[in-house]
Design brief:
The chain contains eleven helices and 14 strands. It is an alpha+beta fold and about 450 residues long. Among the domains are: about 130 residues, 2-Layer Sandwich (Beta-Lactamase); about 150 residues, Heat Shock Protein 90. Helix 5 packs antiparallel against helix 6, helix 6 packs parallel to helix 10 and helix 7 packs across helix 9. Bound molecules: adenosine-5'-triphosphate (ATP) and magnesium ion. The site of adenosine-5'-triphosphate (ATP) has 24 residues, from helix 9 and helix 10.
């Protein structure tokens, strides 16, 4: 608006001047073509001139004899120079009272232009004269117009400008307010939340009620925050669990070794008992370390699958045999419902998954309960299910059991041979096989762990 105002003030004068000169030329041109027609009457000239000669111009038309054939009450009023004494070529003349002089001048210089100052207002005026020759007679058209906008005209424009400026500024404020509300505010809020997040505050909430792109961004960031927060929790768990899991067996080993040294060294029965504890604890440490290294290798993709065609039913039976002592110890009623089925996969790794599913089922089932293993052979896949009636898993814990070091029981009641890595390893193995897997479980009722090996690979071979 400031630029517009500036241009208005600076350009209004040259623009107006240009416009006036064009108008004068246009009037002259139109009148000439009218007078050149045959049989024009004074009446025709008058009515035509009245429509052509508009605002801010005063005019006289003379014929050759110097009698005026058109001199209306003009629109310039006091400004009009045609009835005043003016100086042309150093001679004072009054165009209305004494036309002969101006007619002489126009005859010499056709068309005739001259600028002069109105003695009343100091405004620069244009005086224009033109001889129009027709077959019947000669006419003299004399026009007079101001070359600068008169004060009232400038005032009018400036008033308009002020009104427009007020309206535009008002609209701009309203628009700016809405833009700020809908774009800047949510972004500022998100920036603050991001700052919180950067300082490790995972309560940061990016949610906004802004337009869709910002909403998308906000929900992506919320998602990222949730994941970061989970990673952070896992990290804390990891450090707590690993240090605990390593420290406890080490303490036991140290304690029992000291006992053997001080007390049971001479007593072979006691000594063997104590040595058994030491061996069990070292086995646990061994399992922990090898599980950890296997998982990290699997997750970083270092280990390649060595796929081959093998009998999945036989593989399950082997795992059952491996765990038969636990099954017998706990008097578990194990039901096997196995189809004949060959798959193309890494046999050792798949048996590891089944081992973990079954050992979990045994670990989390009471004595004398039932466990069922199903193998279903269908056209597209082989589905293995391990169902138990054990403790089950709560809804809250269910999404996390596949994470490493996750144990539902956080009290660190360490049962030997429970690292919390089993399902994480199973997950990594199944994902490497691009197998579908999952769990259905209800607290107190039991769990059903399953996976499906696709048969596509078999065909590819
Ligand atoms: P690891 O398998 O390394 O010896 P783990 O059995 O404790 O240790 P995962 O096999 O990864 O670890 O299982 C993670 C957690 O999921 C377990 O600690 C247990 O809380 C829960 N869980 C797994 N299987 C079952 C199941 N069949 N019934 C109830 N809870 C289960
Ligand atoms: Mg396990």
């Amino acid at each position: 608006m400031l630029l517009l105002g500036f241009l208005l003030v600076v350009l209004i004068k040259p623009y107006y001047r240009n416009d006036r000169i064009k108008t004068i030329d246009m009037i002259s041109h139109t009148m000439e073509s009218l007078l050149l027609k045959d049989n024009v009457e004074k009446r025709d000239i008058e009515s035509a001139a009245r429509t052509v000669i508009g605002n801010n111009v005063c005019a006289i038309i003379y014929n050759e004899n110097g009698s005026n054939i058109y001199y209306p009450p003009d629109s310039l009023g006091q400004l009009c120079m045609l009835d005043k004494n003016i100086t042309i070529n150093d001679e004072i003349c009054n165009i209305r009272d004494n036309p002969t002089k101006i007619i002489e001048i126009i005859k010499n210089e056709n068309p005739f232009y001259m600028t002069l100052n109105s003695q009343y207002t100091d405004i620069e005026m244009l005086l224009y004269g033109k001889q129009i020759k027709t077959n019947l007679a000669n006419y003299y058209l004399i026009l007079n117009t101001p070359l600068e906008p008169i004060e009232s005209y400038i005032d009018f424009i400036m008033n308009q400008y002020v009104y427009i400026a007020v309206i535009v500024v008002f609209i701009a404020l309203v628009v700016a307010f809405f833009l700020a509300k809908n774009i800047s505010q949510p972004i500022i809020k998100m920036k603050n939340e991001a700052h919180k997040l950067a300082q490790g505050n995972y309560d940061a909430k990016f949610e906004t009620d802004s337009f869709s792109e910002i909403n998308d961004l906000a929900s992506t960031l919320d998602d990222a925050t949730e994941k970061l927060s989970k990673v952070n929790d896992l990290r804390k768990d990891l450090v707590a669990n690993v240090s605990h899991d390593i420290k406890t067996p080490l303490t036991m080993i140290k304690a029992y070794a000291e006992m053997i040294k001080d007390i049971s060294g001479e007593d072979p029965i006691k000594r063997n008992e104590h040595l058994d504890v030491i061996i069990k604890e070292t086995e646990y440490l061994d399992k922990l370390v090898s599980d950890m290294s296997q998982l990290s290798k699997l997750q970083s993709g270092v280990i390649e699958l060595s796929r081959d065609n093998f009998d999945l039913k036989e593989c399950i039976n082997k795992v059952v045999l491996l765990l038969s002592h636990v099954i017998n110890e706990k008097h578990i009623d194990l039901k096997l419902d196995l189809d004949d089925c060959f798959v193309y996969a890494d046999e050792i790794k798949i048996s590891q998954v089944i081992y973990n599913f079954l050992s979990n089922a045994l670990k989390y089932s009471d004595d004398n309960s039932t466990i069922e293993i199903k193998l279903r052979n269908s056209e597209d896949n082989a589905r293995v299910e391990v169902n138990d009636n054990g403790s089950g898993i709560s809804k809250e814990a269910l999404p996390y059991i596949w994470d490493r070091y996750y144990k539902v029981d956080k009290n660190f009641n360490r049962t030997v041979n429970s690292t919390g890595l089993g399902l994480a390893i199973a997950k990594a193995i199944l994902e490497a096989h691009e197998a579908a897997y999952g769990v259905e479980s209800e607290l107190g009722k039991g769990s059903s762990f399953w996976f499906e090996l696709s048969k596509d690979y078999e065909e590819e071979r």
